[in-house]
Amino acid sequence: MGPKTYGTMGVDWEERVEFERLRTQRLTRIKRLLAESEMGALLCFDMNNIRYITATHIGTWAMDKVARFSLLPQNDEPILWDFGSAARHHQLYAPWLGERSRAGISTQRGAMAPEAGRAEDVARKIRIELEERGLLGSPLGVDVIELPVLFALQKEGITVVDGQQLMQQARIIKTVDEITLLNTACMMVDAAYDELYRFMRPGVRENECVGLVSKVLYDLGSEHVEGVNAISGERCSPHPHVFSDRALRPGDPAYFDILHSYNGYRTCYYRTFAVGSASQAQVDAYKKCREILDTAIAMIRPGVTTGEVVATFPKAPEFGFQDEEAAFALQYGHGVGLSIWEKPIFSRLVSLDHPEEIKEGMVFALETFWPASDGWSAARIEEQLIVTATGCEVITRFPAEDLLVAGVRYYTATGPLSTVRDTQSHRNTEAGRRAPTPATAQSNSHGNSHSAKAHASKAR
After folding, report:
1. Is residue 370 within 8 Å of 289, Cβ to Cβ?
2. Are residues 370 and 231 in the same domain?
């Protein structure tokens, strides 16, 4: 049986997400990895790592402040220093922490004057806890840190080492409850895409699409809409990675990436549409994009490496980029959990030389891109999947096997207007097909330039 889809509430008549099990299994996993490491303790400022270890959250407004911090000593329970009254709230409502929830604040990204001594106060708090446990001589793993805090820890005689890899290693394999939460988060995006498909039409702006998606997700119980990439028309190639106020027009391609959080667990979920109709160039680009993605998905099973998967991805020059760094994240894969991106990473930039083994229980997204021969359209598709004992299961279910056309269906005097047609009306007539204008020929030549360069590069 695949991952289950429940409602978003807790009930007494059905076993759904067991949050106590979620908290316990996450903490047990990182404790075990810490015990196997050289580190005496792990100090975290990253909100997602703090949540993984302590099961606390105070709102996404705090994610970029690097203000709260937790310490996990070897063979002991985590201690949390939190923002003002949040520490008192945890004492009342997070009994698994109790008195280990304490008030403490860092420098607010330098907003507090250095003379106030906040960095030194953080370091002093950590030194006291390490001394009490005989851990002061052992390396302290840290995930992310402000430089004043780093210098203050070193001044206290503490050796700081990289703790990010330990946290990434802990988070790479998902528990049964994490998988349920990730599947539920995808279910919510399924619904958002259905509403978006019905909403899109000429005149609707990209930012309106973002607003609609955000409302659907929050209404369904999303904790945080991290971002909605909304890209349309001429903005599709090259990919700008940000939405605008551009209005959709007939024949436009439009692709979206929806990133949100349900109980901390994220989505990264691209879909591509055509507005009213699609040109043959758009249809062809979508087919190529889907082919690349399906080839990669077909390879996913335990024991295969990320390097083997990305070897099937096209090289950067094949789709118009000079190298893999310039094309980074267009043919791509990444772990999804309490954040995006997590391990494992799939990219020709790093995975061929530094492959990672795919294991059962991983949850990651695979995403592909392909520019159309018209020089401005493109397709973008992404699927999230769970690695099973024998393969994988896709948990992003909004239809994507073929290019969907959104908007009303148009009718002519002789019947329905074809949904595969050029945006330039005269090219769809018999006369226009027989005798392209010089401007059309020039446009087609320009649009196919990236393909010609790609073939030349491949030949070399």
Report:
1. yes
2. yes
